[in-house]
Records
---
Amino acid sequence: MKPEEILDQIEILFPNAQCELLHQTPFQLLVAVVLSAQTTDAAVNKVTPALFERWPDARSLMQADPREVGEVIRSIGLYPTKSKNIVALSAKLVEEFDGEVPSTFKELQSLPGVGRKTANVVRSVAFDIPSFAVDTHVERVSKRLGLAKPEDDPLKVEEKLRRKLPRDRWNQAHHDLIFFGRYFCTARNPKCKECPFVSFCKKERVDAAKAAAKEKKS
């Protein structure tokens, strides 16, 4: 099955796939994505309403005490580091970008706590710039469906997806693959019996490669 046909099938299953992080501005999206590292979107959505009610923009958050911010977001993983990062990135936004979120890779990745995945999400969702963020769901699904090899790192997966899919579908494809991985092709107990891709799925090969890599590290 061609890559575009795979997307078409996923969009039948999930016709309304979109960013699930609660936000009202590019700044709030940026902060939410930073907070979502190694944490679920659902967990982030539980803390951001209170966070953004107190500090809705960069100018207010830059003045906050990271320890106080940490108390608000303490239910999510790595909250001490994340609280420091979002206060620091707010200060840099005000000092270097007049409080506005930039849209280039270089400028976004210059902000504390912002890596390639976060930059891609912000460019895609906030600015509608064709981008392809690769999180754990996108990586897992891409490898199982043969869009990438089991041994590929996230950057290699991104490069292959960008080559195999039309540029005008990148932004939506990112959401499609996330929804498919989050709600259907899950890490544990995927819905294989209901899957339209079971005939060419490489789950066993991917799992074996992952287990081998884990053993090599230990």
---
Amino acid sequence: MTEAHLTNNLADLPCIVDALRAGGVVLLPTDTVLGLAALPNMQAGVDRLYALKDRPRAKALPIMVATSAQLADLGVILTPAIEQALASPFVPGALTIAAEIDPQICPDWLAGRREIAFRIPDAPLLLEILRQVGPLLVTSANRAGHPTPANATAVLEQLMAAPDLVVEGPAGADVVSTLINCTQSPAVIERLGAISHAQLAEYLEVWHG
């Protein structure tokens, strides 16, 4: 697949969907930092995504979904903390949630995993992509251990190789999402990002060391 450039516009949606369904990796804007996306059931795309980032395979990739309804197909076990987080004003938005999954319900590409980290983004084009193709593996567009660049040109200079498709456009923010681990009780903030501890504490019991 040859690298191509598109704009962050709904008119380009069919090309983006086709690239993902062909097993490609797409660089695209999110509501936080720029991201790299691949369909989780396309092993070639997943392998390429890890290679582009030079990311250790032991580190699982986060998942984006369009709605909370898509979580059922992933086998996500909804706890009171997760339900409170999903009902907060930070969803859709810059809140990533780590949750346990039911191995008897989860799809084959999650076999062997006991938990996942998922997010519902607040980005119109990305949400429409997720509605059409289903859950995506989406991770920050940076080489492992490096900060995420603010524009596609700088991303391409940093990655190990070029992704299959580049969707031009600025990221929604220069900071990553906040990650909360809801496999513990109370939930634990594992990464502070766009949402502060104080903001989260207004809607659910959450601890941060």
---
Amino acid sequence: MSEDDTKLMAPPSSFTPELQSESPKSAQISYRFMCPGPGRFQCSSTGLVFVMAQKTELVYKAIQWNESVLQPSGKIPAGLLFKIQCPEDAVCQLHLPHCETKDAEFLKSLLSVVHITDDGMSILKPLEITDTHVIVTVSHFSAFGIVRAFEVFYRFFSNPCPVHGQVLLFLRPPNLNSQRQNLHLVVLSRNVPLEEVRRRHQDSVYIPAPLKCLLFEDQHYTVDCPTAFIVQPKKADFDLDFGPNYHPTFEIRLSTSIKVVTIALRDQKNTDVWKHDVDLTGPGPEGNHIFRHGL
């Protein structure tokens, strides 16, 4: 076995891509990676894994789905649609992250990958589906994305399984006149990259917190926050949302004097599926508000 073959079979090496945007306030970003040579490389921002055959430059970005193109094929989005640019034959395989918790046998009938070019759309049968990724063989690039088989999904809807979800927190600048601040909760599937959401909330401060939870599609959720003046809406359905806007799922209104707040996301049975004590203060010794530190 050659050295290059060994690299192609090795676990992926993580890399942090260079982020590029059209302007400082642009919500559209591209990811750039100078691949050093053959091997497996995983993007720390998107979760994508590229199995590379050669040294090259990779440039990729998430673009908006056109669901009217998918509908005739009986497919619905199950992940972001990525437009990828690189030389032909530079990539052997592409691993796209999914959010499913179902077993591998079921996923074989549920998930596939679409390849969209200027000539139209083709559906690729996965080479393999792991607990985290859908793997396809590729040779040339344009746009790739994971899709679900609509008929298969709703055939088993009476006995649903959860998907891997995440809760992202964004604190709006305080209103000094009313002495109020708004904390936004964005509830999404696990395979939506954080950076894609952050770019849609550039006027807010992202608050790191444990992200992971299990969520059921088309079921409603509520937020409990005892120190809030108001939480709105009172309940919200969870749907797979792959952008491009990523609006807040819940808004929590708080006094600016609040430094720490406990938030719980609850399901229809009033069971906590996610709970966290959120620190709304900055790193200074007096715990000044994070906006006063310019973070």
